[in-house]
Design brief:
This protein has helices at residues 3-18, 39-50, 64-73, 95-104; strands at residues 30-34, 56-59, 82-85, 88-91. Helix 1 runs parallel beside helix 4. It has a four-stranded mixed sheet with strand order 2-1-3-4, with helices on both faces. It has one domain: Glutaredoxin. Helices cover 43% and strands 15% of the residues. By secondary structure, it is of the alpha+beta class.
């Protein structure tokens, strides 16, 4: 049992609730900021697609303003991928963490 992942999942759920994203009102849009060459970005997009979660992909190689935006969210570094759940930001979540966040936000059912 990975207690670190459990703690991260609980933290994500608490952050989602604090941001008003408690699953009762899922975010209007999920945005994935990444690059086509980044393996972690590819993995995140694959997980989202497999779970049937609609998202908008922003390739920061083609959008310097988006790269500056995520760098501002990440202490000056453009960490990839960065996800924006309607104002709640997550940086390079593992597949398990991503699923927990999506459940907490009401975007996928708990048994997915």
């Amino acid at each position: 049992m990975d207690t670190g992942a459990d703690e991260q999942g609980a933290a994500a759920a608490a952050a989602a609730a604090a941001a008003g994203l408690d699953g009762s009102h899922p975010p209007a849009e999920v945005v994935v900021y990444g690059t086509d060459w980044c393996g972690d970005t590819k993995r995140t997009r694959t997980v989202l697609s497999a779970l049937g979660v609609a998202y908008r992909y922003v390739n920061v190689d083609d959008d310097p303003e988006a790269e500056r935006r995520i760098a501002g969210w990440n202490s000056g570094r453009a960490e990839l991928p960065t996800l924006d759940y309607g104002g709640l930001v997550s940086v390079n979540p593992s597949p398990d963490m991503l699923k927990k966040q999506l459940v907490a936000l009401g975007l996928v059912p708990p048994d997915s």
